[in-house]
Amino acid sequence: MLKATLRSFLAHKGRLLLSALAVLLSVAFVTGSLIFSDTVSRTFDRLFASTAADVTVSPKEDLDEAVPSGRTATLPAALAERVRQVDGVAAARAEVDVDGLTVVDEENEPVGPTTGAPTLGTAWNPTERSPVELTSGHAPRGDGQALLDSETADRKDVRIGDTLTVIAPPGSFEVRVVGIATFTTTNPGAALVFLDPSTAPTKLLGSPRAATGISVDAADGVTDEQLKQRVAAALGAHTYDFRTADEQAKSDVEQLGGFLDVIKYVMVGFAGIAVLVGVFLIVNTFSMLIAQRTRELGLLRALGADRRQVRRSVLAEALLLGLVGSTLGLAVGIGLAAGLIELMGLLGMNIAADEMVIGWVTPVTAYVVGLGVTFVAAYLPARRASGVSPMAALSDAEVAGVGRPLRVRAVAGAVVGAAGAAALVGCAVSERTSSAASLLGLGVVLSLIATVIAGPLLVRPVIRVLGAAFPALFGSIGRMSQRNALRNPRRTGATAAALMVGLALVGGMSVASESMTASFDQQIDKTLGADFVIQNTNFLPFPKEVTDEVRGTEGVGLLVRGRFTPVAVRLPDGDRVETTAAGYDPRLDEVANITYVQGDSAAALANGHLAMDRDFARDHDVRVGGTVPVEFPGGRRAELTVGALTDQDAAEGFGTQGGLYFGLATLERYAPGGQDSALYVNAAPGTSDDDLRANLERTLDPYPQVQVRDLADYKQLVHDQIAVLLYLVYALLGLAIIIAVLGVVNTLALSVVERTREIGLLRAIGLARRQLRRMIRLESVVIAVFGAVLGLALGLVWGVCTHEVLALQGMAALAIPWFTIVAVVIGSAVVGVVAALLPALRASRMNVLAAIAHE
């Protein structure tokens, strides 16, 4: 049996190739993501471990900033002197590190990275742990001098002697580049500007007595933990945050973890799609191979092989397929990881390819995924093979299940489908976002499984409709192609399922994104009343001087500032909710249309008052006139009076949890030092919008990071953000289509082999080569369109239910992207044509006499 299994595998290696490609893609994405993330993690672990001070003292921050406030947490620089007096301290330095800077050259072009990495300003304090070293020029001395990192200098063609403008939170200032610093470790992609330590606090923090942290070196014989305890005792353990080198490195890695997780989850998503559609391909391949080997399996049974041996033989073939696919996939995954590392290099994150990390988990995972996928996919065909009777060797019987009833599928599909439908209905009627989202996920999974199970039941009615025009358009050729697709519903359903999965995903996400876009458009039209909104390109806050320049621009009639801060609210029901609150100037009503359920803007923006969303207030037993304790950054606390309740849905500026906002006077009292994130500007009487826009753009020319947007620009900004999600979905769709094409090619190729004698007879009675190719192409097209119709129908249901979840967050508009749906159906027909090219060509080149004699 082992010899027979190996010979059978080698005899069908060409037919198994496409299935092996599905396994290869699945394993490649899994291993590529693991290798890449492990390599980046190891690289940054080394970087942070080698650069962290023995003990770091930093301001205590209990609240996470989900939305940047522009506030830089500081502590007194004089603490460094106190720390130096602590027993066991070898050295202590006041550090100044500020991110979110904008640096421009003499032509007003940004010098910093454009990939999302920050531009950092810091004091030049070189130590043995510094990640950079001075390689040309000299250290900055006094006001107006700076160093620039070598990679930024090379990328932007900056040389020693050039003048740069640094736009920092306290204001803009010019520096002359007097030296270049080169990274001795991995550059995380940031641009670094180093200033003289004596001027950095004033330039970057606005105060000569401020620092962002204290770095402490331990004396010989003193451990980091001992030093941490001594410094904490000297300064007050609850006043600041104290971290050892290991703790600081771990904290830095956790901050980086979000970036790594995004890449890892994206690649795992690709792997998941590849695995899912690959299962359908492998099931179909083995089902057809077993059907074509009925006589062979019958002979094995007649020679004495029992059911278990036959089943093991088929599963062994599948495991061999998985072994080959996993091995190749592991190799391709290593190449994929290397490609990602090179891509990161182009984006400014320099990771050495020769430091690639391939831990034992990676190959184990590769083979578990590859062998597991093929074993699971081949199990049902293997069971079917074990049921072949010895008498099958004497006949042309098949075990493909053509004639077997589909009652079991009908019952199973109905049960699972009913459960999925119930979950989706529950999602639609639920009033809580969390429960609705859970029911949506359950409904999506169950409805997908039900459609896969019941797919063969839908083949005959749907394909009869889809192919109804074939006889009229293509005559007998069209009729035969339709009947070929109807011949084996199981096979057709499994072939179409691979394409169905991808199109269901893209259909659902397209409806959801289109509905989000329409909802935001409605809310922006409804809420935004300003002529222009001025914001940073990447939504970071901007310095006060920008606000001052805009306020002094000719034609500006009204300017309302918007600012954000993290807060924690303790509510009457006992919950403590961390969220982001906004602060606005008193004339907010003139630039925003706010729907109040109780109270008004005057009450909401009064000193010591705040407003919140009515649903949030209802859920937590908050009443107008009551007070709620609010925690601000830096440990400040306040009892604020609820002045108003709003019904703003997902309107811009109020879309954070709770919809909290208050007056800027309240915000500056309890969270000073923040920066403006948005300016809402109305034109003065007698000034046209076009004139005001031209004046504002002229004013903001020295600040390339700040943009002037009107209503249409603001909508486009939202559209572009939502489009990023769609790009990922379309990429997943592309992968699903690639594997679906492999599935259609495989099915048609095996079908051609199965119908060799039939094709020979058709050719003998006068069927031309061109007619034969057309018949196979039409069969492929109708199968692909069948998968598209099922997928889009399922996706529309998912999209509508997703919209119901979004509606609970205020995004109530439902929009169906009909253009996308029609384009996908047409594209599916094209996919069918492409997938049929090789099988149709092979069929048309058959020798007629040899085909007729084929058994």
From TrEMBL:
Similarity comment: family membership: Belongs to the ABC-4 integral membrane protein family.
Segments forming domain MacB-like periplasmic core: 17-233, 492-698
Coiled coil (UniProt feature): none
Keyword DNA damage: no
Identification of the protein by name: FtsX-like permease family protein
Topological relation to the membrane, as annotated: Multi-pass membrane protein
Biological source species: Streptomyces coeruleofuscus
Subcellular location: Cell membrane
Residues passing through the membrane, by range: 265-291, 318-340, 360-382, 439-459, 493-512, 724-753, 778-800, 812-838
One Pfam family hit: MacB_PCD
Compositional bias of kind Low complexity: 112-123
Listed PANTHER family: ABC TRANSPORTER PERMEASE YTRF (PTHR30572:SF4), MEMBRANE COMPONENT OF TRANSPORTER-RELATED (PTHR30572)
InterPro entries: ABC3_permease_C, MacB_PCD, Macrolide_Exporter_MacB
Chief place where the protein resides: membrane
Superkingdom, natural source: Bacteria
Region (Disordered): 106-125
